Fold this protein.
Amino acid sequence: MSLVMTHARYQFLETIRIPVAVIGTMFFPAASMAFFVVPSTGDNPVAATYATASMVVFATSTTCLFQYGIGVSEDRAQPWDPYVRTLPAGAFPRFAGRILNGLVFLVLSFAPVLVIGAVATEATASPVELALGLGALVAGAVPFTLLGLTIGYALPSKAALAVAQLLFFPLAFGGGLMSAPGQAPGWVEVISPYLPTRGAAELMWAAVGDRTPDRTAVLMLAIWTVVLAAGATWAYRRDEGRRFS
């Protein structure tokens, strides 16, 4: 465990030495909340609660894509990474440290959203709903973490950045995160249950509101998790075989 914490601390310090990376992590979800949610649904308690939950999913999904996708690919380009991966401690401490570091920035990404939701809108949630929302957040973040790891281990840093940028907005808009449940354009409502963002949002909406999750969306979230776990494993082993065989 001490090795895990050492790796997590090292990766955290490495990231915060570039302030714009931290600012970007916090700014985009907060800006989306301020520009899209507050003016349109801020005075409606139910709509504001659902919209805030959607923005939390938006924050976690994009942070996972960029934190793991770009972070892993950039680390792979550094001489330090192959050296660490040859040490007798194995891959687990560094991998677990990366996950812990990602969780810290995950909190940083959605904390401003919650603050804006509490201060500038009529969104409400009981302590029980907040606890359920945290569980839904963890479950919904898993496939995006795996997607980020797949991108990071499969692609070089420039390609990983491009792919993450190409994916994050279509996943957010196509998953219905930019509108209240059932209020997205017709074509979005058709495709959104099959995207992982919609499954994560359904879990969040059910946690903080009186809503039964769409079964198709939740089933597809589970399928995406399995598929992306296989993809992340394949990408890691492919990278291991190319550089260390």
